[in-house]
Description:
The complex is a heterodimer.
Chain A: H1 10-14, H2 26-54, H3 64-74, H4 85-103, H5 119-140, H6 144-175, H7 180-189, H8 193-196, H9 198-211, H10 235-260, H11 271-292, H12 298-325
Chain B: H1 2-15, H2 22-42, H3 46-70, H4 86-106, H5 120-129, H6 133-154, H7 159-163
Helix pairs in contact in B: 1-2, 2-3
Family (chain A): Belongs to the complex I subunit 1 family.
Membrane topology (chain A): Multi-pass membrane protein
Protein name (chain A): NADH-quinone oxidoreductase subunit H
Amino acid sequence: MTDAAVPGGPAAWAAGGDGVAAAAVWPVLVAPMVLAVFGYGAAAGTAVLRRHVSGVAAVGGLVAPARETVRLLVTQRRTVPGADALLWRLGGAIVPVAAVLAVLVIPVGGRAVSDLSVGVVWFNAMEVLVWAGLWLAGWGANSVWGMAGGYRFLVQGLSYELPHMFALTTAALGAGSLRVSEIVAAQQEQVWFAVVMPVALAVYLVSALAMAFWGPFDQAVGRDIAGGVTAELSGVDLLLARAGRYLLLAAVAAMAVPLFLGGGAGPWLSGWAWSLVKAAVVLALLVWAGHRLPTVRMDRFTEVGWVVLLPATLLQALLVACLILLGWG
Amino acid sequence: MFAVCAVCAVAAGAAVFWVDSMARATFALLASFVFTGVVILLIELSYLGVLVILMMTMEMLVMVVFMVMYMMNPAGLMPMTMVHNNRVALVISGGTFVALVAGIEVVPWPARGGEPPPLPAAELGAAVMESHMLVMMVVAMALFATMVASVVLATDRGRYDRYGDGLDRRVPDDPIRGGVGR
């Protein structure tokens, strides 16, 4: 194992300080657009699935997100007496911003907007910003539903975050680097990490659903509390929160590709095409799972997270560490 | 960029004591930490900088729950203030500042001998994991024991409450049912 292959090791540290400014300008513009297309796809897919269930012509779901966007854009936004407007508006806006910042480190066909030496940690930090977004949006509205939803999401966050971090750590451990491009390179030399660390991939996907407060982890915006965090949001604020949720779902789905599914590796097609195809497949899986599975109460899920998922990811990390010591990689 | 972030960090830190809501105070503190994280990023400590942002976001979100719960502003219904006992506090903080600055100015700092190693992080890791391993393990055990002990002391339900006086209940009697069937 070379010096550079120590997780978070000296090479990763020494190479620090690479910033967004170093990259060319156009990926900065393209990445959010690609993310927006994926987010729209997720929203349209959801609309199609819902229409299919309720027996309406499902094809109409393809334009439903666009129609809903226009409707929300022209809607006068409500206000609530005693609302903390600053925190409230800020909360809804943080969600899409965090999603866009998170995708900056995801390589598509070997190119990321900014291939940070600590890309995995950056991704994690940006997704944790969503905690702040949801709590603020719930709190600021001065509504009991919003506040209950915000607190629900914090409980959920404390349940999924540690298993999620260990799943990320396991992928970084396998490659010996926190740099996302090196994680991809390690899989191209050896084998996709989905094969050696299936538990980590499974936990990652579960926590991806929880992070994007997508079903079955959608209690923060649950119907039983009148929409929870989004209960009092309207107009453009509601648009930001909803769109942010789909963008977030797309971002975490896309990150599964470089972490576990070999990045742009694959026959016939070029690297960027494979990256996008795999991301679309993972996203479709998440959308479908969220549509099919019944909502899980987070007080139940907390125990699952700490008693089942956390030990499982620790064992997975131990197994990968042993494999590395035995000379794999 | 550095100066902007530094000023913003200090300003957000001051805002903690300016605002009249615990939620705003907590998130002003979070903003201050995030600006500090960016400053750390700018001095090319990328891991540390991103980690500050990550950990502080999580920490402040946990903290806000407890702050709102315990402090004088339950549910944000009435304005509160973060400053109390102003006169004494001013004297103490001013005195501390003067003492620290005097310390910095008066102490004859030794000149630097030698050069920093090429990989300071690796050196630090080696020091912690090799020669000071025993100390670190004892510290870790003490911290862990403290955590377990404080949880045991804080909880009002023990195993006899959960499993009955003879500890013979198969399924524990918990106020909230968990997700793995217990």
